[in-house]
Structure formats: C-alpha cells, structure tokens
Amino acid sequence: LCAKSFPEQTGCLNYDRESNTINIGLGTGRIFFYKLDPDSGFTQYENYIDFKPHKSLVTGVSYDVQTGYIYSCSSDKKFYITEINYLDNPSEIMDNACGYTIMHHDRKYQRMFLCNELGMVDVYLTQNFPPTLVNSVQTSSEYPIKGFCIDLIKCYIFTCAGNGLLSVLDLNSPGKEKLIKEISYFGGEN
After folding, report:
1. pLDDT for 129-150, tens place per residue?
2. Residue 76 vs residues 34, 72, 118, 166: alpha-carbon distances, Å
3. Are the C-beta atoms of residues 101 and 107 closer than 8 Å to each other?
4. Which of 9, 65, 115, 132 is the Cys-Cys partner for 19 at CB 3.0 to 4.6 Å?
5. Mind listing the pLDDT tens digit for each residue in 20-52?
6. Exposure pattern of 7-34 as b/e (b: 16+ CB <10 Å)?
7. Phi, psi of 77 (to 5 degrees)
C-alpha cells in the first residue's frame, strides 16, 4: 500500500490502533511517529513526531494514547518515558547495566516487559508515573534475548536468546507479577 525507507537501521516498529500511528525507532536513537489515514486504506500518512531521546539503536517504543506517554528503550541501556507535549525532556526510568533488546507493552494489564542483552526480563507496572519495577527474571541463557511473545490466555511468556535457547516463563495472573519465574527451557548451543 505504501513504502517508507530510512537512511539508517530501523530497530523497532509499533502500531498504535487508537491513535492510528506507526512508531519507528532508528539506529541513531531517533524515533518517528507517522499518523496514518485509515480512510485512505493506509496509503496516506504524515510525519507526526520526530525526536531523539536515545544515543544508539532504539529497540522498543510504545505510545499510550490515554496518558500521552511515549515509552522507549535502547541499546544505550536507557528506559525513558517522554510526555508527548514535552519531547525535549524525557524522564529516565532506568539506566540498566546492559542494553535493552526488546520491549513489550501490555496495555490491558498496564505492564511493561523489557528484555536485555544478559538474558533478563524486567517487569514494570505502568499504572503510575514513574513505572515501578516489580520483578527481574533471569532466563537460563545469558545471551541477548532476541525474541519475545506472550500468551495472555494461558499466562506464559516465551523468549528466545541469541544462542537459540528458548525459555518459558510462568506469567501468573495480573497482580502477581512478582511471582513470574522460568519454568522450562530447551534448545541452545551444546
């Protein structure tokens, strides 16, 4: 329907259905928001936001239209929240020991999952500002987490590390995020 190219590496992509925006994180730490026009069949878009909160590859971005917060993480080891009306003043939530590789925002239960280069999953609750870190789960791999998916019906998290190790985490029910733990792993280097 449409195509957009960038002169640098793209690190992440997120679509927000409520605001009809596509959020793109780039290798230089820049984040672009494009406002899409669903009435045009998504063939028309306009540059909505362009700002640079990070110093290197943006690996996760999410926009919460209800609060007006833009969440972002990067290989520069930073997790930021930026208020949409104050793009030049991001709030640093965490300066991690290593870079982040993936971010997943569970808006329904107001949780944020951040994966890092050492095989850990950090779990934040986003009901309040700033978000609260409630759990850090080390997977059996100490390699960067490259893949992440979540089953909200059966309450499991699946991660895949750079060495091919797949981990299964028991998510438990909402409100019990402190109890998330790895229950199984398989694959990986021998």
Report:
1. 899 999 999 999 999 999 999 9
2. 24, 11, 14, 25
3. no
4. 65
5. 889 999 999 999 999 988 888 888 888 888 999
6. eeeebbebebeebbbbbbbbbbbbbbbb
7. 80, 10
